[in-house]
Write a structure and sequence with these properties.
The chain is α/β, with parallel strands linked by helices. Helices cover 29% and strands 19% of the residues. The structure holds beta-D-glucopyranose.
Length: 747
């Protein structure tokens, strides 16, 4: 009887607030726990302290911690689990870590994986990352990053899926599925708009108009929510003047109200006290109240919920129902993750899983899917069998840390195959490999250039491993320049002056401005940070055992001054013309990008012919369907990425000059031709108005088909009537990506 009354009381407390955030009804277990918990225990669930930060073992044993982060070793995790077993209610803990591209075995960075134009690549890598993480005792990763990033100066562009909303969203969703299939929960971050920080400066504010927010920035997050992400993380920034960590509109209205997100929201690390530093709260108490009421359920190492919430509840400034609502979300998420029913954790079992041979084999194969061949003059690649000697130049060639990349979780650098290791292992017997550094990884001095060039001049071929050391990329690594770091361009020129062909293997976490490199380099193979087995994958690609089949998920500018430069810009009435001053251009940089979005070469070449639009008049429930015959016109097998772009020609607001709507990859043997069909729901061709409504306006849409964002126009369709979704929010149709089917051999 007493228990029933208690349940009723809690339900009535939850009800008024729950409707605002559309929380699912709490389970029996959650209700029971809430009824039993003291105020301190409840607040404990809302706290996630960090190793090296506010972690306090005594609080774990007292049942006053909801989860911890940055503990990575199985032994440490077992110890914390044992402490928690001493607590009164023994509510399982969240063990979170930034498993961004692997735990012990590292895979390529997320931006690199987006270059595969094959979300299955990310689904597989995250599956293996999760298998290792779970074996280590973790149950949550702080990934995927669905922050659309359109400014390469921002170092965290490497953590996301590039500049296109559909591509980034497909990859974010694939990562969620992969982490789940491998056995851990996923955290979507950093909600919302973090990728739009002003000037590409990390932690700077962002200002995004409503239409742009809904058309571009929100879709990737929503696609991850639809894929079932468990936790959502706020960001450090203020968006349109409101700290995201204090944004009720983002965390409650949009995330829960419109999208029905059932999990819990965690702040970014220390982001709750930082609300005060953003000038929107007068101290930690107000920051805590703002965050909790906005819908931020857990405090990541800010120590503010622990310090402030009890007082706020006791003095009546915060209703206990608001606290219960957050606790219920945390508990329900733990329940959904299966943490209450877990078998005891055995740290000794981890050793058999971490770095297992099949996981490393997956890393090697998946890495090769992400490489982008930017240029290949005279088909200098793949390396010809008659090559007798190769000079490998550049400290990055032998750097284990830089092969792994930033956010290396619990990778062991010594277990990493560098480009030099890979080339030595793969080079045929009789081909000499000589290594010379030339300069350090950041290339701060040219004092050894002379010696390096002299050595390189003796070889048949020079492989220069250049680009960004991993610490130039990632969090807190914004750059004002996009050039090759230090004196690398000079080194490249010196190498080219030997007269030997120079193949640049480019390590990078962002688009670089390579205008000065395209002349001296014969070929440029972008390999990002290829991970634990990266060197093998690079060598196999250079020697032609694997074909480079990646495509750019971001535009490569000629010069940093062109930023932002994305393929899906809005039109200008005066597109740039060299001969006309009063057009949209720079006086001192050539027009357009150096390499467009979607660009990438292979070791063969393809033709696309007979492009046909199935129906020219389309209603709102139809699909835009295009077929084309793709043929491998070269002498080696290879993979092509067919890309379909659409432009809404006349609308009530300016629409992008083109938007990627469907793509697909296919393997073709030499001489083989296949017909493929790309299909896009008409409902996904629309845009948002400022009131949040979504519309596909009737009228003409131009269709472009090809191998990059520079694809040619193949015709137009007319949509009539249009389609309109109410301003209840984003329509589900917007997020249905187009797809490609290979339908058979052409005659
Ligand atoms: C980053 C997050 C990360 C967190 C925990 C923060 O500084 O912004 O992306 O998940 O640290 O490591």
């Amino acid at each position: 009887m007493r228990i029933t009354i208690f349940f009723a009381a809690i339900a009535s407390l939850l009800a008024p607030i729950a409707t605002a955030g559309a929380d699912p009804a709490p389970s029996e277990r959650v209700r029971r726990l809430l009824a039993e918990m003291t105020l301190e225990e409840k607040i404990g669930q809302l706290d996630m302290p960090s190793h090296g930060g506010h972690y306090d073992p005594a609080r774990v044993a007292a049942g006053r911690t909801g989860g911890v982060l940055n503990f990575g070793s199985p032994q440490e995790i077992a110890e914390i689990r044992a402490l928690n077993a001493q607590s009164r209610l023994k509510i399982p803990l969240i063990f979170g870590l930034d498993v961004i591209h692997g735990y012990r075995t590292l895979f390529p960075m997320p931006l690199a994986e987006a270059a595969s134009f094959d979300p299955a690549v990310a689904e597989q890598s995250t599956h293996w990352a999760a298998v290792e993480s779970r074996a280590a005792g973790l149950n949550l990763t702080f990934s995927p990053v669905a922050d659309l990033a359109r400014d390469p100066r921002w170092g965290r562009i490497v953590e996301g899926g590039g500049e296109d909303p559909m591509l980034a969203g497909l990859f974010a969703a694939a990562r969620v599925r992969g982490f789940h299939s491998g056995g851990i929960g996923a955290t979507l971050k950093h909600f919302a708009g973090y990728g739009a920080v002003e000037g590409g400066r990390d932690y700077a504010p962002a200002d995004i108009s409503e239409g742009t927010l809904r058309d571009r920035y929100l879709p990737p997050y929503r696609m991850a929510v639809e894929a079932g992400v468990d936790v959502v993380m706020t960001s450090y920034i203020s968006l349109n003047g409101t700290p995201t960590t204090a944004s009720r509109r983002l965390m409650s209205d949009i995330l829960r109200g419109e999208w029905g997100f059932p999990g819990y929201v965690v702040s970014d690390m220390n982001a709750i006290p930082e609300i005060a530093l953003l000038g929107v709260a007068d101290g930690n108490g107000e920051a805590a109240k703002l965050a909790l009421e906005a819908g931020v359920d857990q405090d990541m190492d800010g120590e503010v919920y622990i310090a402030e919430l009890a007082g706020l509840v006791r003095d009546g400034s915060l209703p206990e129902a608001a606290l219960d609502r957050a606790v219920a979300r945390v508990l329900a998420t733990k329940e959904r993750l299966g943490l209450f029913d877990e078998k005891p954790f055995d740290p000794a079992a981890a050793a058999a899983v971490l770095g297992r041979a099949d996981i490393r084999a997956a890393s090697r194969a998946l890495a090769a899917e992400t490489f982008v061949l930017l240029q290949n003059k005279d088909d200098v690649l793949p390396i010809r069998p008659e090559t007798r000697s190769i000079a490998v130049v550049g400290a990055l060639a032998a750097s284990q840390a830089d092969t792994l990349g930033n956010n290396a979780a619990r990778a062991v650098p010594a277990e990493t195959v560098t480009v030099l290791d890979g080339l030595r292992a793969r080079a045929p017997a009789g081909t000499r490999i000589d290594f010379v550094e030339g300069c350090d990884t950041a290339c701060t001095s040219d004092s050894n250039f002379q010696a390096a060039a002299a050595k390189a001049a003796e070889a048949d071929l020079i492989v220069a491993v250049l680009g960004e050391p991993q610490d130039h990329s990632g969090e807190g690594a914004s750059r004002a320049s996009l050039e090759l770091p230090g004196r690398q361009t000079d080194l490249l020129r010196r190498l080219a002056a030997t007269g030997r062909p120079v193949v640049v293997v480019l390590l990078a976490g962002r688009p670089l401005a390579l205008s000065e490199a395209v002349d001296p380099a014969a070929a440029i193979l972008l390999v990002w940070y290829p991970g634990s087995e990266g060197g093998h994958a690079v060598a196999e690609t250079l020697f032609g055992d694997r074909d480079p089949a990646g495509r750019l998920p971001v535009t490569f500018p000629r010069h940093v001054g062109q930023v932002p430069i994305t393929y899906d810009a809005l039109p200008t009435a005066r597109p740039g013309k060299v001969e006309d001053r009063y057009t949209s251009r720079y006086l001192d940089v050539a027009l357009g990008p150096l390499f467009p979005f979607g660009h990438g070469l292979g070791y063969t070449h393809f033709t696309q012919s007979d492009a046909r639009i199935a129906a020219r008049r389309l209603g709102p429930d139809d699909r835009l369907t295009v077929s084309v015959t793709v043929a491998n016109a070269g002498t080696r097998p290879g993979r092509e990425v067919v890309q379909l772009y659409v432009r809404d020609v006349v609308a009530s607001r300016a629409r992008p000059v083109r938007e990627l709507k469907a793509f697909g990859k296919l393997l073709l043997e030499p001489g083989e031709a296949r017909e493929v069909v790309l299909s896009v729901p008409v409902r996904s061709l629309g845009f948002h108005r400022d009131d949040g409504s979504y519309v596909v306006e009737p009228g003409r849409f131009d269709v472009y088909l090809g191998s990059s964002a520079a694809a040619p126009l193949i015709g137009s369709v007319v949509v009539s009537p249009g389609y309109e979704a109410p301003p209840a929010g984003l329509s589900a149709e917007r997020f249905e990506a187009g797809h490609m089917t290979v339908i058979g051999k052409s005659p």
